[in-house]
Amino acid sequence: MLKAAMVALVVSAGLSCTQVMANAESAPAHRHPVNVAEIAYQDSYIAKRRFSGRAVAAQRSALAFELPGTVEAVEVESGQQVAAGDVLVSLDSRLLQAQAAEVDAALVENRASLNKNIRDLERQRSLKTKGYSAQQAIDDLTAQGKVLRAQRERLEAQRRAVELRLEKSVLKAPFSGEVVAKSVDVGVTVKEGQPALEIVEIGDTEAVIGIPEVLYSAVSNVDEVTVRGFFGETQATVVSVSQTVNPNTLTHSVRIRFPADVAIADGSIVYMLVDQTINQRGFWLPLSSLLEGYRGTWSVFALNQDNTLEKRSVSPLYQEGGRVFVEGELDDGSQVVINGVHRYAAGQIVQVAEQ
User: Fold this and answer.
1) Where does the UniProt annotation place the signal sequence (predicted)?
2) Cut 0.70: pTM above it
């Protein structure tokens, strides 16, 4: 009796297990939802090229005295901003002022002598009409007048020369800008042509940037280009594009000018952005859709007709932000997994998530 009960229990348990396994096999497998995008082929793409250069002031001058002398006053320091015409450095001009005073005194004396000569000549001519003066006296006074006038011209030239030397004893700002270097101090004796200050213009900044020959037409045919720097992004005016290629860098030099309202320090690094059209057939994909393979190869997961994942090789050509332009073994309109690719495997059956 007991034996028969045990046999019945075993048979019942076996039938239950078989039924559970059958139910498990008949249940549908879970399919992971995936985000996909349809690829769209295009015959070319636009690559944003970036070229660097340095911002430079439109005017930069090393100021020096044309005459030797001793520095009497320095009105500015490095880093100080100045306006056009401001006095920057002065030389001791006492000797020149003494020369000017000497010439002025000689001019006064000459003027008095010339006035006397004119009066004497008029008197002699008046007397001659009355027969009381000889022609010789008139001739002598006429010659003396010519000498005095020549002396006056020479003295006036000397006075202008002294004035010019006095003017050149003072260094003035040729334009509004900033003093970037000072190499003299009060009491220092300077030579002719010795630099005293260096000044750069403020508010009119340019940059010279080299571009490859393939982009010459792209830049030479536009009036403005996009430039980036610490100031952000702005449009700069294309001043000129050299037609010749620099033999050292094999580039064309592009001179650009920044807007006046963009504050750019002299010497700052700036970047010029240029759009280049590349004639290459391919398609755009999110960067997150790529799988890195062996020795630098790349692939993506594509869905076939029954939603099975297949690995397809692609070759990245250009990256821009979070997307990449590739060429690969895919048909136009194919669906590609765009994220979470490391969670899936080739041959896995998935379902397309609701977008």
Assistant:
1) 1-22
2) no
